[in-house]
Amino acid sequence: MPQYVQDRLNIYDAILLLQGLGNTVLLCVSGLGLGLVIALFVGLARASRSRFLSWPAAMYIEIIRDSPLLMQLYLIFFALPLMGLQVPIFAAGVATLMVNSSAFMAEIVRAGIQAVGKDQLEAARGLGMNYAQTMRHVVIPQAFRVMIPPGVGLLIGLIKDSSIISVISYIELTRVGQILTEKTFLSFQVFGIVAALYFLLCYPLSKLALHAERRLKVSG
Amino acid sequence: MRGYVFQFREVFQELPMLLDGAITTLHISILTLIFSLIVGIIGALCRMSRLGWLRVPATWYVEVVRNTPLLVQLFFIYFGLSQINIDVSNYTAGLIGLVLNNGAYLTEIVRAGIQAIHKGQFEAGYSLGLSFPQLMRHVVFPQAFRVIYPPMCNQFIGIILWSSLVSTISVHDLALRGKELASTTFRSFETYAVVTLIYVAMTLTISAALKVIGYRVFRRPA
Questions:
Q1: Which of A24, A28, A59, A66 best tests the B interface by mutation, with the highest count of B CBs <10 A?
Q2: Closest Cα of chain B to A33: distance in Å?
Q3: How many structural domains comprise chain B?
Q4: Closest among A63, A66, A62, A43 to A53, alpha carbons compared
Q5: Is A208 buried (19+), middle (13-18) or exposed (0-12) by CB count in 10 A?
Q6: pLDDT at residue B39 is higher than 60
Q7: B73 contacts in A (CB within 8 Å)?
Q8: Where are the domains of chain A?
Q9: For residue B41, which of B97, B108, B126, B135 has the smallest C-alpha distance?
Q10: Residue B127 covered by a domain
Q11: What confidence tier does A142 reach under pLDDT thresholds 50, 70, 90?
């Protein structure tokens, strides 16, 4: 065994793992937050009656949902420098999660919008509201409620997907696991701990999503 | 983007190599689907069992797998197996990881399919004197498969996309071939654009084909 290899994990490794966990959360929250903004526009375009809006939106959603996140990451990671943007790897990671989650979120937004009854739209029009006002004051507040359970599900998916950002060497939880494995050769233990930390993050969220879904069903 | 000239020629010259990788991707995906369907059927029966020693481990298997990333599961298996001196090929390690991962999702799909069957069917089967395996084989699964088929197809598309992660443990699938090509031609963007389009073409074709098959087999849109 090489000299630098330690045979056990120490307190500094634990701190590193927690920092990795923090970075994972940071990555996911930024990715989902920005993705939600794009998703609102794409989802509105997708639900629109105008083909000039709905078809490009549908294309965007389809291509992203039918290609691997790893490829999207590589494309963004290598495309940004081509456009003359020297961005840190964190930004490339966030951009990838943003683009990926926006496509899935757009479908959730569309489903939410379409779940709002037609009579609501007619009532809003009857009150003299224009399209933007109807969306802003009538449709989106109601759609938002329907969007919460699948939205939480998406967040869980995003937390798991963010592990892929480790391949461009951003120091999030999985990358910390790789570093510690190279240092200690204790793969089972290290990745066991990493998996447990992901589980601690995702399991409560999945219970929350289930709870939200049940409550939504009860209240109709 | 100014000053950059897109050149796809070198990428297209190596298209046969990429397609070879695509075959590996399909190969591992199909094997994953078959094995994880078996895991899913066993898992679903265990999860619905009245016996606690079957139900509890199956429930935890599903929860743990669904709440941890596939990449971490792959690393756990790939590096973990070598730590305890079990020597498997990268392909086998990748396949085991994908099967364990998708087995949990298929457990839930199969369970939903079995639960969709009316209770009267079970009672009728038992009153005809069928044993549990006979009941499953002749009454439940033929009907459940109809319910299971559409989400199973979606899962298969997911398997094709997620199988790209086995490239991180050096299985020569489409994603890894793309990575190698990008590093030899220095045409990263063009290479990954082509590879992404191959993935999109594969998933769109396969999901359309599966819809047609489902329509033919079940006489209704899947």
A1: A66
A2: 21
A3: 1
A4: A43
A5: middle
A6: yes
A7: 195
A8: 11-219
A9: B108
A10: yes
A11: confident
d(CA A55, CA A58): 5
Residue A215, pLDDT score: 84
Q: Whose CA is closest to A69, among A159, A153, A150, A165?
A: A165
Q: Tell me if residue B93 falls in helix, strand or coil.
A: helix
User: In angstroms, how far apart are the furthest CA atoms of chain A?
Assistant: 78
In a domain, B2, yes or no: no
Alpha-carbon torsion, ordered B91, B95, B64, B157, to 10 deg:
120
Nearest-Cα distance to chain A for B89, in Å, is 17
Which residue of A8, A27, A163, A206 to mutate against B (max B Cβ within 10 Å)?
Answer: A163
Q: List residues in chain B touching A: CB distance below 8 A.
A: 1-2, 4, 63-64, 66-73, 75-76, 79-80, 82-84, 157, 161-162, 164-165, 167-168, 175, 178-179, 182, 188-189, 192-193, 195-196, 199-200, 203-204
Residue B121 falls within a domain, yes or no? yes
- Rounded Cα distance between B129 and B45, Å, is 20
CA distance B101 to B66: 8
Judged by average pLDDT, the poorest of A33-47, A130-144, B2-16, B125-139 is: B2-16
Residue A132's pLDDT is 86
CATH number, domain containing residue B52: 1.10.3720.10
- DSSP3 helix / strand / coil % (chain A, rounded to 5): 85, 0, 15
pLDDT at B13: 85
Closest CB to B68 among A75, A181, A198: A198
Tokens 């224009």 correspond to: A130
Contact between chains at A68 and B199 (C-beta distance less than 8 A): yes
Count how many residues are written for chain B.
222
- The mean per-residue pLDDT over the stretch B208-220 comes to 86
What pLDDT was estimated at residue B222?
46
- The whole-angstrom separation of Cα A121 and Cα A134 is 7
Q: Which CATH superfamily is domain A11-219 in?
A: MetI-like (1.10.3720.10)
Are B189 and A68 in contact (CB < 8 Å)?
no
Domain ranges, residue B32: 9-218
* ipTM of this predicted structure: 0.88
Q: Does B104 have pLDDT greater than 90?
A: yes
Interchain CB distance below 8 Å, B192 and A71? yes
Q: How far apart are CA B41 and CA B107, in angstroms?
A: 6
**Residue B1 forms part of a structural domain:** no
- B146 contacts: CB under 8 Å, gap ≥ 6: B218
